[in-house]
Amino acid sequence: MKKCIWFLAVCALFASGCDEDPAPARSSRPSSQSGTADASGSERTKYIASSVVFDADSEQTYVSVLDSLDSQEIDYASAREFAGWSDVWIHEGAVYVSSREEHTVTKFSIDDDNTLIEEAQISFAKYGEVDVAFWSNTFVAPDKAYMIEGTRGYVIWDPQTMEITGTFDLPKLPEREGLLVRAGTLDRANVIRDGKLYQPMYWSDEDYARFAPDSRVAVIDIATDRVIDTIDAPCAGLDIGSADDEGNLYFSTWTSGVFQPLWDKGSPNCVATIPASAESARVAFKFADVTEGREGSAVRNFRDGKLLFSVFHQERVDLTDADADPFELLGERNWRTWLYDPETSSASAVEGLDWNSGATYVFDIDDVHYVMVPSTNYEATRVVALEDDLTTSTRFEMRGWATRLFAVE
């Protein structure tokens, strides 16, 4: 059960070393143009895709530089291998790769042969609680990023000079009835709006199976590196955030959040929203109310105010089987991706996206949503292009669990 929780909740990101669809309000596309020139001298876009392959004893990360996102087979002989569960991100046209083993972030450029060229490196070794990865990091400006240190606060660093420039604290929340304080995973939970970063925080047990019924959202002024508000949010386990085109913010649980309402007979999960131009949270909807009684997770903006999320189809499993491991079932192909329309309060499965294991990441590149669809126990991931009209096409398959896809311009 522990191993499944490790995959589903990514529990070691902030806790015990065993801990995961786009950095929500931050575009998955880089914000500057510094791509590779072709023979005519014009800039051409490159793409970065990465995945981690894990077994009981080890992890290996693969980073591929692609010339397009057309249908293709990934050439792993050309992929760059990194030891352990490394991570990759794009910022201002540069490639950043973190090493959890060495507590470093390395900055790379891409040469004409699609080779990653090391430019500079920064160490976070003096900050013992920093789990150096981009699920622990938020880029907030061209020259500023926040790397979280447990739940204590942020380490501020400059991705241009590759120097640490300061620290500041997050709100100190007490443990509640045996539940630990958690910070929402930064690559999918944090949202930036109007110069402010919204950082969800919540309470769970050690296994990320049980949650307090409410959460908090810390509001941070990016210009001054200061927490200016803490918002009460009436939903459990808020570990993923997103913003729609109007600036409405949505926060929801990750995949392990369906354990409590389905197996432990807890309250149904809800989605919290902080409306545009508001600084208070309310319930947007409950998953069970729009999915014919099913539980869901991982809400993300799609288009025109519509939202994508993962739905666990409990009719495919026996909830009463005392011998079954619920977290094994959560890691199998019992999930579908649904689309929700807040205007009509209606939702339905996206037919072109097959059954999967729920932990999908989504990246919006060139006005196309690329859904990273994991197989059973994250042994492989299909990268599927989802168009505005909901037509789909599989572009390629990656080894292991793929959670990163970027354009480098």
Could you characterize the architecture of this molecule?
This protein has 409 residues and is mostly beta strands. The protein contains five helices and 31 strands. The strands form eight sheets. Strands 14, 15, 16, 17 and 18 form a five-stranded antiparallel beta sheet that branches. The longest helix has 8 residues. The protein is globular and about 55 Å long. The N terminus is likely disordered.
Which short descriptors sum up this protein?
5 helices, single chain, mainly beta, 409 residues, 4-stranded antiparallel beta sheet, 31 strands, 6% helix, disordered N terminus
Present the secondary structure layout.
Blueprint: H1 2-9, E1 36-37, E2 43-44, E3 46-54, E4 59-66, E5 80-83, E6 87-91, E7 94-99, E8 104-110, E9 116-123, E10 137-141, E11 144-149, E12 153-158, E13 163-169, E14 180-183, H2 186-189, E15 191-193, E16 196-204, E17 215-221, E18 226-233, E19 240-243, E20 249-252, H3 259-263, E21 270-274, E22 282-286, H4 287-290, E23 295-301, E24 307-312, H5 326-330, E25 335-341, E26 346-349, E27 361-365, E28 368-374, E29 380-386, E30 392-399, E31 401-408
Antiparallel strand pairs: 1-2, 3-4, 3-31, 4-5, 6-7, 7-8, 8-9, 10-11, 11-12, 12-13, 14-16, 15-16, 16-17, 17-18, 19-20, 20-21, 21-22, 23-24, 24-25, 25-26, 27-28, 28-29, 29-30
Number of strands: 31
Q: What fraction of residues sit in β-strands?
A: 35-45%
Number of helices: 5
> Mind telling me the C-alpha Rg?
20 Å
Q: How helix-rich are the residues, as a percent range?
A: under 10%
Which ranges are low-confidence, i.e. pLDDT below 50, for 5 or more consecutive residues? 1-7, 9-42
